[in-house]
Amino acid sequence: MSFFSQEIETMDRGELDALVDERIRYTVQFAAENSPFYRKWFRTNKIDPTTIREHEDLRDLPVISGKDVRERQPPDTKEFEFKCVDWPEVFTVHETSGTSGNPKSFFLTWEDWNRYAEKYARAFVSQNFTSGDRVVVCASYGMNVGANTMTLAAQKIDMTIIPVGHCTFPVNIITKYHPTGIVGSVFKLLRLARRMESEGLDPQESSIKRLLAGGESFADESRAFLEEVWRVPVYNTYGSTEGTMCGECHEKVGLHVPEDLVHLDVYDPAVNNFVEDGECGRIVLTTLLPPGARRGHYY
Predict the structure, then answer these.
(1) How many Å is the Cα radius of gyration of the chain?
(2) pTM for the full model?
(3) Residue 207 in contact with residue 179, Cβ under 8 Å?
(4) How many domains would you assign to the chain?
(5) Contact 53, 21 (CB under 8 A)
(6) Is 294 domain-assigned?
(7) I want to staple 214 with a disulfide (CB 3.0 to 4.6 A). Which of 14, 123, 233, 237 is the partner?
(8) pLDDT of 234-281, one tens digit each?
(9) Separation CA 90–CA 111 (nearest Å)
């Protein structure tokens, strides 16, 4: 198996746990010092952020919801209370779709972008993408971060990106540039295959070697059907606007969490405590920062 960051991705469990705890300490301190929300929260609750030392201590911190974020930004407040840097450090501004009301705003530094790209590069390499691959990105470019993140990740492993931004691109994109992969949702990739067939191009005889499905959940049966239509492996990816990217490797036995950069906990339904290993619950993701790093926002 290939790795993008082999030292980190193959780290001994004990060493990785120690690294995670170190980054939890730094991340909490960074948020307490730079986020107006957390600065106020620690003061109001009379909690010393330096007492948050390891994974288990995260239970003492609030689990932030989208509603919390929307209520702590304009027009509800004067400032963006989760923003952690001054404007000169902000490289790009982004918003969620706003399907639940006022879109959540978030702010990315160039450091943030490089960490985002690192996560996707690891996933690409684990899915056997390599130098010389050409990938059509059907995800939209704009206020959403996914397409841009994949584009930056591709640069790190010498892949070529064909940034069409949607799955209704002309079929001659495939016959002209001979891409080896496509990123899109399951149903868009199915519709693309049907459109190719209607124009006399068999998806199974095209240059495509693998597909990346994301943007919406899908059943195993949907993946199996898509693989049957294209006769190539289909890999699952998960990404949020907050940068919690996780990817499935070529073994296709579940998503890999880049634990040095994203910490995953599973809480009970009331989000009061962790569940035991093997039990179902609600996933809570915490973005971790390496000591000395900075982040445009934290929630």
Answers:
(1) 20
(2) 0.92
(3) yes
(4) 2
(5) yes
(6) no
(7) 237
(8) 999 887 766 778 889 999 998 899 999 999 999 998 888 888 888 899
(9) 10
